[in-house]
């Protein structure tokens, strides 16, 4: 029996050693690759300086006499300009598309500035102004940026033509979930950050980088940015601030603007997600809710349908 215990102990020690060696090797490899990849990163838009840091602004589609759609990305989307291309490329022939990558996202800098909703919206507005995008805009927020879109419409209604929500979050949801749905589903931000530091997101099959609608070169840029930007300090600060931001938006009341809300089936987001979106939509006759049978990343699974319904909805809005 004692001999068997010794054998089992040796096996366990060897297994632990192999795991530690693997994690150490992955960490070293990850940081070598980050250095190499940093030289390959090539922005496809323009930069403006907001509060002393560079912010990346990408535009697509005709601008003259065309409504503007502003893409506002979900929490933790490392490369918004690529992640949402599968959707906005289906609208860019008729609308002027603008993607402002917040601090901590895509090609933009990492600022370390406070991530309260008022500051984030101020930065958006400044970036648009500096890049010559005068609006008003149709805000197209995905997930947690729904709070930013609602705050924008509350505080600056003349700058917002409409909101088209891509499974957008609403304030009520955060009464039940203090943190954002991304971290609720996958684990604590600190744990996820440790995995990213070790480069475990590079393991094939993790599914963190989407290739939908991208060329080979765009996919490579998406990968470089994801490995570099995922869960940086600005993104983690957003997670810390989300409950407070939701309370701020809740106090601001219902914006008096038209909204089209696409709602997912709530998979992975808790049993309150869908109901909270329905409750929100029921508060105003200016809101139309479309229920989709797909999970949260609706720009991946329903881009054709979302583009078609968005087009029809906006035709009605701008025909008035």
What do the pLDDT scores average to? 91
The strands making up the biggest β-sheet line up spatially as 1-2-4-3-5-6-7-8
Q: What amount of the residues lies in strands? A: 5-15%
| Biggest beta sheet attributes | 8 strands, mixed
CATH 2nd-level architecture of the largest domain:
3-Layer(aba) Sandwich
What are the segments in which pLDDT stays under 50 over at least 5 consecutive residues? none
User: What is the end-to-end distance?
Assistant: 85 Å
Radius of gyration: 21 Å
- What is the name of the CATH topology of the largest domain? Rossmann fold
- The tally of domains stands at 2
Write up this protein.
There is one protein chain. This protein has helices at residues 2-38, 80-83, 85-88, 117-130, 146-155, 173-176, 181-186, 189-197, 216-229, 233-252, 273-281, 298-301, 303-319, and strands at 46-50, 53-60, 68-72, 96-101, 137-141, 160-166, 259-263, 287-291. The chain is built from 13 helices and eight strands. The protein folds into two domains: 1-39; 41-319, Rossmann fold. By secondary structure, it is an alpha/beta fold.
